[in-house]
Amino acid sequence: xxxxxxxxxxxxxxxxxxxxxxxxxxxxxxxxxxxxxxxxxxxxxxxxxxxxxxxxxxxxxxxxxxxxxxxxxxxxxxxxxxxxxxxxxxxxxxxxxxxxxxxxxxxxxxxxxxxxxxxxxxxxxxxxxxxxxxxxxxxxxxxxxxxxxxxxxxxxxxxxxxxxxxxxxxxxxxxxxxxxxxxxxxxxxxxxxxxxxxxxxxxxxxxxxxxxxxxxxxxxxxxxxxxxxxxxxxxxxxxxxxxxxxxxxxxxxxxxxxxxxxxxxxxxxxxxxxxxxxxxxxxxxxxxxxxxxxxxxxxxxxxxxxxxxxxxxxxxxxxxxxxxxxx
Amino acid sequence: xxxxxxxxxxxxxxxxxxxxxxxxxxxxxxxxxxxxxxxxxxxxxxxxxxxxxxxxxxxxxxxxxxxxxxxxxxxxxxxxxxxxxxxxxxxxxxxxxxxxx
Lengths: 327, 101
Known about the structure:
Strand content of chain A: 15-25%
Oligomer: heterodimer
Order of helices and strands of chain B: EEHEEHEH
Strand order of the largest sheet of chain A: 6-7-8-10-9
Helix content of chain A: 25-40%
CATH superfamily of the domain at 98-315 in chain A: Histidine kinase-like ATPase, C-terminal domain
Largest interface: A-B, 54 and 51 residues
Strand content of chain B: 5-15%
Number of domains of chain B: 1
Helix content of chain B: 40-55%
Number of helices of chain A: 13
Strand order of the largest sheet of chain B: 1-3-5
Distance between the termini of chain A: 63 Å
Shape of chain B: globular
Largest sheet of chain A: 5 strands, antiparallel
Structural class of chain B: alpha/beta
Order of helices and strands of chain A: EEHEEHEHHEHHEEHHHHEHEHH
């Protein structure tokens, strides 16, 4: 029976254990079980998006979904609309606030026309009116990550996205997660990059480099894609000193929080050259793709134009700056 | 031809479907005829690299550097300007292989 066990905490700092200790994509039996820790549950957006995507996968496979150990401790997951998306009845009883802050509840996106609506809601839901650079960073990541899924994942259920702004305990940050149970990165890139088809870790590494797409090697993207989205998204996390996490197939990549301001401002084209990266190999892993980005809001304010800083650091072979007519 | 870019929420231009539509219906046909194209970003505060790529990447790859004589980018914020410079540079020359910074 497929079973997804939620321990007492699932966050970016302990994500490895959550993935390694689960085997949620078996296909025996008639039921799929979602089991919460009976005493306490802390779930960050990465866990919520994964569970929502997995629930949709389970329904696609014809499983009856059952949730165990529901109660007041799972009220936050309820407020994030997890049980609504799973089709599980849930009455939290007395509501308790586990976290202060603002959030974008779990949302399923199946068509590109829906992306703009999600982005339009971010400012109000996360209360970012007074912080335009962070708002732009969050909107940028959500747009890129959702459109990646819709264009490349082949996921019948599309993508599941949510975000949370943490404003009480430090570091102050916005954490975003997008998950799907589609074909995964290796299958997508493997059509034209043989090494990606053979090895999930190689596929992840390629996907995070600029200029790598499903287009034939040597061509800089297709008319609609340049293959730079995950690189820029990773750079947004790195530049603000936040976590970046990518999981697909049996491989996972995590960039840990920056320790110093100087370290944050050093971007690496090759994700494996990042001094604070972890590369995980799992026995079972994830059928599809999961991305989570942490944007540390107080760090973005230190930049004089955060995005200009990122874009100007993407190395190109030559610059045509003097030939471009800006008026 | 003047094409006014319409952003979404908070002045962000990110809808690649709209960019693709503009590219196919207006930008490429005008350039094929040798007409000048003005892309007016006056309402845009910020654009994703994917949006700008979908808007002009094919024109750059198809017509090479000479197409820059026909393209004018009007009223760009400093961030939009840096995105356009990035897309033009990699579309015509590719990404470099060395460390970013």
